């Protein structure tokens, strides 16, 4: 199975086959408009602007599952992101990323890659644990978790919310140039990440 096998709804509630993105490097993110990480939209837009003419796309799937930090309609979310951050990349309909009603795409993504973490990630997850009781190890832990997909539709990396778009830039550049990217990380971070 690859990401191209999924169909999703865009912000205008139109069905989109992800096969439309075949052959491109993708970054999939669960954004939010009222989160401490919302300012990452600025970094995401800069990353998109830097590589969009080289076959790079960002796919934003807002989710309101974390303390209701993506309130509003799809139209309001898109308007907020364009007005405040100049977002020009594709935004999709608000979804659930965990639980019984999770978007099938996210069910797939969560099992496709090990998450890149750093010390700050573990500190952050410890802080938000009180707001996400009963969450499974492979679940999305917060807004702005990012998945990097290569030109063949394979998930090559999962990045924790505190990992910024700027830190992912080098991986995007390598994938665009045709290089392989392998992100290796021990799930509990005891052995670090490469």
TrEMBL record:
<feature type="active site">
    <location>
        <position position="35"/>
    </location>
</feature>
<dbReference type="Pfam" id="PF00255">
    <property type="entry name" value="GSHPx"/>
</dbReference>
<comment type="similarity">
    <text>Belongs to the glutathione peroxidase family.</text>
</comment>
<dbReference type="InterPro" id="IPR013766">
    <property type="entry name" value="Thioredoxin_domain"/>
</dbReference>
<keyword id="KW-0575">Peroxidase</keyword>
<keyword id="KW-0560">Oxidoreductase</keyword>
<feature type="domain" description="Thioredoxin">
    <location>
        <begin position="1"/>
        <end position="177"/>
    </location>
</feature>
<dbReference type="InterPro" id="IPR029760">
    <property type="entry name" value="GPX_CS"/>
</dbReference>
<dbReference type="GO" id="GO:0034599">
    <property type="term" value="P:cellular response to oxidative stress"/>
</dbReference>
<dbReference type="InterPro" id="IPR036249">
    <property type="entry name" value="Thioredoxin-like_sf"/>
</dbReference>
<protein>
    <recommendedName>
        <fullName>Glutathione peroxidase</fullName>
    </recommendedName>
</protein>
<dbReference type="InterPro" id="IPR000889">
    <property type="entry name" value="Glutathione_peroxidase"/>
</dbReference>
<dbReference type="GO" id="GO:0004601">
    <property type="term" value="F:peroxidase activity"/>
</dbReference>
